[in-house]
């Protein structure tokens, strides 16, 4: 009973977006008989904002859909030719549904990341040609043959800036309060290779050229950071999947993980089914993984204990990497490459908190998991037992902003978790050492 | 009679439950409820002024919006919306805020059987989180009956498809009273034995249906406990002292 791949959940500050990818075999367009199609549907759910309504998508909904679509389609990030099964007759139509659950501002960036993450984890069934003339297409169910990932050449990351009426004031990743008062905005979609995939500056106040160039430089820095985060999140999931079969020792596991990472990291088309939920708050590099039902519990428990120090180690190394981008105060240190003539970060990198997690279906963590010695688990949902009694409100990502400094692995989580949550955490993980 | 369920549960066993409240920031109340792999997210926006055209302005009205995981909104979604709306109308105290509309938005995160009961439970938790006045809570459960007459609870999607018929049942939450009378009796039967909503699919005999009802009622006690515990844990400290 495996979870479907192709779903992701992104939390960027208070903004919460879920993405789902599904594929269907259809007839191709006449003018492109050997290319698959990609379509993006954005749902501005009324739960995200009291002003969102059902029915016709509003202007901003359409704009968001277009920006994400342009970033993926025109930059040829997704390889559509590989989606062709039978030229002229059958191709895969990939449909991305983005559900906006919570509008905390900057929906474009978060939606883009959600779309990318779900595309990266989507697996399509393998098809082969069979029948008499080799003209019949047989779709192999996942039990028969391993489904294949999509071929994605690069990851276009959108970075949004907000301009204010005072000339030198600019923020990156605006919250919804800032969006209400800003006079102009610009979204730049770039990838980690430094290519500009798309720029969108819809009206608003005029901005100096130098400012635009500055923004692009910043965006390219952000893009490579975010790309790395997304890739790391995926690799951790894959290694977790593989990790359950690995040796218990910390070093061996790290080495093994690195080795296994090679074939998968570069091309991102490992044939491992991503079956685990992963929560990774960027600022603290805490990996909160909820295990899969089908993984045997005892094995997982040992793997959990083995991999958690692994995570810590990785977390720390990553933290040094991302330490700059998650500082809240005095954030000018973040982007060294920029011109120092003006300080765009007077507001700081406000809600640049990326928690990319693949959407979970159930929460079947074995009880042992809560005895994680690092105490690093930031529980999003209560751990189910026969009749679990715990309710843990998922912590808002704003908590992260309280801790700008990275300490050891255990302390970062403690700081990140709100006091009331800490209480709850202690309540159920009573046997945990480090909480 | 012993039956083998795919995940090894016995017929009366529910899947692991999980509930979290206050997960969204903009919504007035929100909750996520998962039973096994089925997960539903519910958000509530508190009373807004005015009612829709067909609604009675003397009472508060409830509006339900159901968002499926993928795809367009079609008839099944509309049906769920209507059922959910009627269920919630019967548990909310509608006379407190007349001429207002409370919106409940349901987002299906994953569907692995028993979707509507999961959504009803999530909606209840979200309403509590938003502070909407209610008479009592509702707990929902899905029971299905197979050809040989045995009945199982909380089926997964595969099990649902194989069954002869299944019923979604919604019972009122059991009342935990501080007064010595205990639970209130309605015509001689305890209140929690009443049925708020029952939706059936497929064919089942009358006996099978009553059998399902009994099983469901028993299980609803467990669900009530779980719901009470989850919601209680997030109450502020002084309220619990008052009890």
UniProtKB/TrEMBL annotation, chain A:
<protein>
    <submittedName>
        <fullName>Exosome complex component RRP45B</fullName>
    </submittedName>
</protein>
Automatic annotation (TrEMBL), chain B:
<dbReference type="GO" id="GO:0004527">
    <property type="term" value="F:exonuclease activity"/>
</dbReference>
<dbReference type="InterPro" id="IPR050080">
    <property type="entry name" value="RNase_PH"/>
</dbReference>
<keyword id="KW-0269">Exonuclease</keyword>
<keyword id="KW-0539">Nucleus</keyword>
<dbReference type="GO" id="GO:0003723">
    <property type="term" value="F:RNA binding"/>
</dbReference>
<keyword id="KW-0540">Nuclease</keyword>
<keyword id="KW-0271">Exosome</keyword>
<dbReference type="InterPro" id="IPR020568">
    <property type="entry name" value="Ribosomal_Su5_D2-typ_SF"/>
</dbReference>
<protein>
    <recommendedName>
        <fullName>Exosome complex exonuclease RRP46 homolog</fullName>
    </recommendedName>
</protein>
<dbReference type="InterPro" id="IPR001247">
    <property type="entry name" value="ExoRNase_PH_dom1"/>
</dbReference>
<feature type="domain" description="Exoribonuclease phosphorolytic">
    <location>
        <begin position="13"/>
        <end position="133"/>
    </location>
</feature>
<keyword id="KW-0698">rRNA processing</keyword>
<keyword id="KW-0378">Hydrolase</keyword>
<keyword id="KW-0694">RNA-binding</keyword>
<dbReference type="GO" id="GO:0000178">
    <property type="term" value="C:exosome (RNase complex)"/>
</dbReference>
<dbReference type="InterPro" id="IPR027408">
    <property type="entry name" value="PNPase/RNase_PH_dom_sf"/>
</dbReference>
<dbReference type="GO" id="GO:0006364">
    <property type="term" value="P:rRNA processing"/>
</dbReference>
<comment type="similarity">
    <text>Belongs to the RNase PH family.</text>
</comment>
<dbReference type="InterPro" id="IPR036345">
    <property type="entry name" value="ExoRNase_PH_dom2_sf"/>
</dbReference>
<dbReference type="GO" id="GO:0005730">
    <property type="term" value="C:nucleolus"/>
</dbReference>
<dbReference type="Pfam" id="PF01138">
    <property type="entry name" value="RNase_PH"/>
</dbReference>
